[in-house]
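Structure ticket #2291
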Amino acid sequence: MRTQTGFRFRCYPTAAQAHILLRWIGCQRFVYNAKVTEDRYYRKFAGKALGLPEPYPPVDQQYSRYIHPDLTPWLKEVPSQVLRNGAVRWRQAYARYFQRLGGRPVIRKKSGRQAVWLTSELFTFTPIADTRTGEILGNRLTVGTRKVAVGDILFNAHKDYRIPNSIRIGVEAGQWFLSFSNEDLSQVPDEAETVEWLRQFSEEELLARTFGGDRGVEIPLAGNHGEAFDFDPVQKARMEKKVRQTKRYQRQMARQRTQAAKEKCPAGANYRKTKSRLAKTYQYGKNVRDDFAHKTSRAIVHNPDTLLMVYEDLNVKGMAKKPQAKKDENGHWARNQAAAKAGLNKKILTAAWGKTVTFTQYKAVKAGKLCIKINPYQTSQECAACGHIHPDNRVSQSAFVCQACGHQDHADHNAGRVIARRGVRLLLSGGYLPKESKRCGIFRRKAVEAIGPVRSESTPGESIVSREAGNSLTQGTANQDNLFVRRETPATTACAV
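Resolution: structure written out below.
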């Protein structure tokens, strides 16, 4: 089995290049959102206005109808491949929905991380050789076409890579990144082979080579062999400082919005500067959590004595939700401990529970090892020595005293031992079954055949509606005026059988 390796390098476009790339990002996002809006309109029209099971919304990659000389003339100022890739990204998102790998495509916002997907027609990697020795020092990235040339973009490649077929250039909190993926040339065993290999060990042998991780709020990750993974004191102090800065910038942005509303004018340059500073404070915390998750997962997977990693199957998203408001018998709002829950949610999200497990899973596959999840029910109340389960065993947040055998241990260490033993027994008993990985995608050759390599002209008239299986009718919200589609009425839409 071959795996994919992702690369993410910092790149440094000039101000003029950044301006062009931001325009490409906006136009590609516009085509994607237009496809989403049109899909919602078709589904709502078919399910509500007609009351019939058809016509189905179009699941295609056509985009020429969004190019209007009066409404969207700026779409002609970017290469046609940028617009085409926006439609292909929407089609790929729908392919994931058909495979039950995600929900339907949704509107992409202007805020947050933004990226443009570029195929091989829009970029080239040129080798840079030493004039004296002829040694290849790296590659030069050139982006653009003859009509719209962006130029050479500097990027910092901190590890070896192969030339990709497509790239993404994105911006987040004022920093630009170049990202792509390569297929690994080395073969690794698939999950089923790894499971069969690990089942050859006895329970004692496998338990000695198993890492059981217990995730907590005080200690982000504790192992069954006494490991404790936590943030550095410097990182903790700096993240607390960023939290204070975040609150200050939020108050400042609120005052600037209020002042702009009083003057009945849009927010000015100061508001945009404060917004940029706020994004950078959030970005620091994200980078620290990513760094912690990568270092922790690497230390666990690359341990030669560890073959199996076991974690609890926690619903982190559900655990970090705020409590719902409730009313008492008199109709008044009752106390729901919202402030205390907010503090707990902050600690859960700061501990990077989900990222640590996700990074461990994909690194374990490349290392030929296995990472599984077990039922978290009463893992913190079970004694690792005798197996007795009782709520009183957990004396405090860090102390564990078994009420049956008197076993004493750190609560996180005891839970890690319980998790490891449950994972080993689940694996050896045959209760763990490898999951079949679902893959979906659109080959570039098929996309070119369907759409064509160049921009198609916008012609008013009827549009073709497909009837692909799996596109069930669900409620949606859309406004027909936002479609930029020149047609008479949806009732005249021709359906392709």
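Closing remark: The mean pLDDT is 85.
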